[in-house]
Design goal:
Layout: H1 2-10, H2 13-43, H3 53-104, H4 114-117
Length: 125
């Protein structure tokens, strides 16, 4: 988990925002589906009164489980393709950074002005 968080911290800010939005929407969807199922069960007046309390409590969770079984694989596939695209773009960015760093190693810089190279002991405070 720490490695995953470290890798997220290394990604550009726009990628981190995209991942945050996808994660937030996924969690919101799960919470909303549980809320909707509980609300629809309570609103339905045709529920039999002879069902056990355990079955009544488990019914919304079974519905969520069924919905997640169909929705989760497609969501995971979409996230995997997005992360693969991000990984390939970050690999291209890192190779560009490496090549520009290698090119800058041979650069020479101008000499600093003489007043900057003066000994600190000669300046008065």
């Amino acid at each position: 988990m720490r490695n995953f968080i470290y890798q997220l911290q290394q990604k550009p800010e726009h990628v981190r925002k995209q991942i945050a939005i996808v994660s937030t929407l996924s969690i919101f969807g799960i919470i909303f589906s549980v809320w909707w199922n509980v609300w629809s069960i309570n609103a339905n007046e045709n529920t039999p009164t002879d069902i056990s309390p355990v079955t009544a409590i488990a019914a919304p969770f079974q519905t969520v489980k069924d919905q997640m079984a169909t929705a989760l694989p497609s969501s995971l596939a979409a996230m995997q393709t997005q992360l693969a695209a991000v990984a390939s773009s970050s690999a291209a960015t890192s190779s560009e950074t490496t090549s520009s760093a290698e090119a800058s190693q041979g650069e020479t810089y101008p000499n600093p002005p003489e007043d900057m190279t003066a000994d600190a002991s000669t300046t008065q405070m």
